[in-house]
Amino acid sequence: MTGPHRPAWAEISRGALKRNLRRLVNRARPAQILPVIKANAYGHGLAAVGRLLQAEGVFSVAVALVREGVALRFEGFRGRILLIEPLLPRDVPEAMKHRLTPQVSSLEEARRLNTTARRAGLTRFKVQVEVDTGMGRVGFRPEDLLRDYPRLVRLPNLGVEAFYTHLATADWSDGAYAKKQIALFHALRDKLAPHSPADLPAPLWHLANSAALLGKIPGTQGDWMRPGLALYGVAPNPRLGHALGLEPVMTLKASILQVKRIAKGDSVGYNRTFIAKRPMKIAVLSAGYADGVHRSLSNKGSCLVRGRKVPLVGTICMDMCMADVTRVPNVKAGDVAVLFGKSGRASLPVEEQALAAGTIPYELLCAVGERVERVYV
Fold first, then answer.
1. Dist. CA 190–CA 211, nearest whole Å
2. Residues 18, 38, 164, 342: which is the catalytic one?
3. Which of 97, 191, 270, 332 is catalytic?
4. In which element (H, E) is residue 138 found?
5. Helices (H), the chain
6. C-alpha distances out from residue 125 to 15, 82, 95, 101, 242, Å
7. Where are the domains of the chain?
8. Rounded to 5, what percent of the chain is helix, strand, coil?
9. Mean pLDDT per 10-residue section of the chain, whose length is 377 residues
């Protein structure tokens, strides 16, 4: 088939992705970039994005899961694949088999990796050490790493390739907390440096996410910088997006299945959450919460129909949602509605839709379901 198999699809612009990549590469220099393409490349398609990055000369990426890394290997990605989620014991052999680079967050994890590497006949299997400088998630606590690092680097079958941390508030206008994290990270690196083996290269480092890269936060330009959301044309904070002119990569589209007229007093959708106050014309769209149209957009969100912004009305269903097209002429079944992205000269940013849903753009992009076909243009 030449078109999408289902009447709801996500249109992915290769051109916009390439241009965003080049802008971020230039922004990061002299550091390299290590794009984050976990969660199906934030909904944009892991395999396609991985292939494009490699074709554009990017040979280091980050994912969360072993299966994401394995999928990239099957797609022919030859470079470094960093796993930024700790490995479960059952996943260690698979990670080593496919030359994935694990992060370690504890001495126990490092010892487990060392044992598996020894059994596999691997020496100096590369790992990266994550430090929890204030995110409160995974990673060594600084005091634990100071205690355990001398023992970690003596494990004969592992080699520490890099240190990194994750900034919790890099997109805030108040940079005080980020500065604390950055200072703690660099102080820790200085204290650990004397313990690194003399016969191995000094560990690399990285801590810049999209917000730090776009905002050029001092002290974050390491050996790599890790753009995630920015690669897909969305800024973590609106004030950060204008400097580079990032272009949204995804447009979520749905076909109009039916157009019907309803009378004053008629209801739309489950639980009668919308009652018509006048005669109206309603379009039924072929996308619902199973496709990534959050139920919280019920009676709050919008879409574009024939280049006009119209409200979503009624409760979002699993497979469908409804829009008020009373003031849009000539709407008919088969027309295309845009749930975020561009329609001709009109635009409905995913940030605006996320605000209406009471969430963040990351979640809307990642929520675009598997049955929504990605169409690359």
1. 25
2. 38
3. 270
4. none
5. 14-28, 38-42, 46-55, 66-74, 92-97, 107-119, 142-152, 176-192, 210-215, 350-357, 361-367
6. 37, 13, 11, 8, 41
7. 31-232, 250-376
8. 35, 25, 40
9. 69 97 96 97 97 97 98 97 95 96 97 95 94 96 97 95 96 93 97 89 94 94 96 87 85 97 97 97 97 97 97 98 97 97 93 96 95 94
Contacts of 188 (CB under 8 A, 6+ apart): 131, 133, 142, 145, 146, 163
Amino acid at 298: S
Asked if 38 is an active-site residue, the reply is yes
Active site residue 270: yes
Fold of 31-232: TIM Barrel (3.20.20)
Containing 275, the helix (H) or strand (E) segment is: strand 274-275
CB contact set of 7 (below 8 Å; sequence gap of 6+): 254, 255, 257, 286
Are the beta carbons of 78 and 54 closer than 8 angstroms?
A: yes
The domain made up of 250-376 has a fold known as Lyase, Ornithine Decarboxylase; Chain A, domain 1 (2.40.37)
The C-alpha atoms of residue 156 and residue 143 are separated, in whole angstroms, by 23
pLDDT (tens digit per residue) in 93-147 = 999 999 999 999 999 999 999 999 999 999 899 999 999 999 999 999 999 999 9
Instruction: Please state whether the predicted TM-score (pTM) of the whole model is above 0.90.
Output: yes
> In residues, how long is the chain?
377
Q: Look at residue 344 in the predicted model and tell me its pLDDT.
A: 87
